[in-house]
Amino acid sequence: MSVGLVGRTLFPLSALASIALAVVAAMSLALPPEHAVLPIGLPDLPMHVRLDALSRIFLLLLGGASAGISVFAAGYFRRGEGTPPGLMCLQYHLFLASMGFILLADDAYAFMVAWETMAISSYFLVTTQHRIPEIRSAGFLYLLIAHVGAISILLTFGVLQGGSWHFTFDAMRAAHLSPAWAAGAFVLAFVGFGAKAGLIPLHVWLPEAHPAAPSPVSALMSGVMLKMAVYGMIRVTFDLLGTPVWWWGLVPLAAGLISAIYGAVFAAVQTDMKRLLAYSSIENLGLAFTGVGLSVVFLGAGMRVPAALALTATLYHCLNHSLMKSLLFLGTGSVLHATGERNLGRLGGLIHRMPWVAWASLVGALAIAGLPPLNGFVSEWLLLQSFLFADRIPHAFVNLLIPMSTALVALAVALAGYVMVKFFGVIFLGQPRESTLAQAHDCGFLERLGLVWLAVGCVALGLAPVQVLGALNHVTRQLTATSLSQQGGPWWLLAPVPTRQVSYGPLVFFLAIALIVALTVFAVRLFYHQRVRRGPAWDCAFGGLTARMQDTAEGFGQPIRNIFQSFFSIERELPTPYDRAPRYRIAITDRIWRGLYEPLGGLVQRVADAIAVLQQGRIAVYLLYSFGTLIVLLALALVP
Amino acid sequence: MNVLEPSISELVTQLLEVVAALAAAPLFLGWVNQCRAWLSNRRAPSIWMPYRNIRKLFDKDAVLAENASPLFRIAPYIVFGTMVVAAAIIPSMGTRLPLVTAADAIALVGLFATARVFLSLAAMDVGTAFGTLGARREMMVGFLAEPALLMVIFGASMISATTALPAISEHLATQSLGIYPSLAFTAIAFTLVLLAENARIPVDNPATHLELTMIHEAMLLEYSARHLALMEWASALRLFNYACIGFALFVPWGIATRTIDPVGLAFSIPVLAAKLAVAGGSLALIETMSAKLRVMRAPEFLATAFLFAVLGLLVHVLLGS
How many angstroms separate the CA atoms of B54 and B43, rounded? Predict the structure, then answer.
């Protein structure tokens, strides 16, 4: 198929379908759940589907984010970059459809089929440029961890059926599990979905796979696919398992917090822009799982309103992240196409050459940094508010943990600010670090449309939290039997907990800032002259200010590298004073890779070697094995 | 506090606070500078010096670097705007502020973060060595100071079960004198954060342009004329705002707490002036008595602040007070 057909027709059509999906999901939120049994699947094992408030919210997320990504993709894919566009288009839409089907599935069979389709279709998308060995190994790592997670999820469903051997979700809801089995199912689900979400220590695939994939695919994976893990976790914990026990929540809470800090710290020291965003995704998913854990703790302790608040914060954060992270990944895609560079050390000053991409990315960067009045701040605000509730938990030990958790959340959010200043500042501001950047061009019309769609989404979710909360209330009512009331409050004021005097009105807040800024501009214009001269930047009177004197990506990450030294294993190559061509090299690797994965890989290798002793390659030996097995089996059968 | 129909009196309080902050912020800075000069046996500059400085800058022609982007030109307005809005939601004279319903203390911390991010981005815009260096150091200070400030505010807000700053202040001011051990820890943490966030000694020195140590001044090097004036005014406002947060949390007495309270409001002005005079003097004293830290030591200083703030929260949970 030609690029023109794919780009001008199929992808825009798919974007329209995504918008339709989002609209339908949003309109039907208040309706009761709907069931259906599909006539497809294995004989005697038809697939069940169900559409309830939780699926609808995630379908809204899927539609909203993928609409922007598909429009962008329409202008992005071109010939000569690995997989031909026609095949790519097929894989891309298979990926989208499988994610939609995960959200609809109402039995373990349908769920697992969709889950595997998602993993495999995205594997092919990641390895689009399969001729590059690094990309092949990144793809393999992704596939491996996806399957470790899938096995864990499969076992979860095995436990959840509770002896009835019916694998519909309805049977699982009705099953009564003993506390030990229920806890086992929870932990298995946490491992399975945590692997997909990229929680520590199963995160290693994420920073490899995201940079390997083409940018719209990275956007889809980070923005949408990771949310499927959150969906699965919420579905199993709140819906299938019944009422959770409070201490279960401590597991995702702790893992989420560790991942949040870890992701943010690693993001701050990256030099590849897509790896930076991948680590930032680990941070954001960590925050989402923190919210899930907190909600479980509250629900288990019988505190329904704070549980609903924490769950709302999680869902809000998922919606936010699907828009802002997709936006930034698409921005990096445009930069990559315009310059051919992913390395931050060779970019810079692109705000002059690519204003559309730069300003859209600025919105995304400010949103991820959690700055008011954009959307990232709202979910941060809700999460912090739910932490503040915690001083009433009837368990003294948890009460002491909560302030420390709050501190870690605050630290992770502040680190996100650092990361985003680095990301935006190094790519778009300053002077171009390479002379080739002067030829960079802004992205085309369709790509702009995609970026603007997502940026507008970020602003809208930031300014209209009450309306979003109204939508999320349907989910919390379904899962925690509570909704955050908004009685009597004005339409622009977010006051989720009427018993507490807390509120946030982003629209008024934004208007106040805008008014003051406008008044200042006006006053300056009115009372003072407007004379402006342009001159060279101040060079301390030494002359010869060059682009190389700016901070590099390594330089900007240096404080974080020093402060969090124990997180990394660092290899440095420092030049000696006598070097004719001095080189400074620094390589930062993940300690978990060396501490966990390499020993594990070695262990697998050793076990395989031990087993390989059996493999002699002579037919006589194999006949002997068969004979021996037969004797042993006979002996077993004869001995009563 | 009905935000839908704020009464005239509430609006007046709101407006008065903003105007007072705008007018008094450079004066407060002048006072601190004067105290510092006295304490180090120098002849003090006039207390009006910051005003003259701002006026002089407004008269000058602006010089922009050749490759400065629009972001560089709008950043001063945004930084200034956020600081003015911050002044509007911090109770300095009265606690009945209509705007506070729309922006609580978490939003206030967010505002400071917004100002910091824009300042850093603007510093990176021209692409000089000093600018990026300043931006990096500012973000290094910021990523530890921001959560510390948040924890300080949470320490106080747990006592009064709200995150609205005036409500916290009102709760602490109107209660019969209670002693909160947790507030002692948070007060120490807050002092450290104030020093770091306002580029004071020991983290930064506002009076130097030495490249090895400067943070805030490095970011402003490319600014001139009206843009620089707005930035200077904004940093004076930031110091004023921080001082007022401190008063609201730790010495809230003397603030007007009733809806219609012209007497209280009138009384609060001299009280605020007295508090500011004492705070400025103490700030100058701390600065004179301490030495500038090396930049690498600044994270330790801020980590101490962060730990003290968390300790305050823990003490609150443990003692239930």
Answer: 21
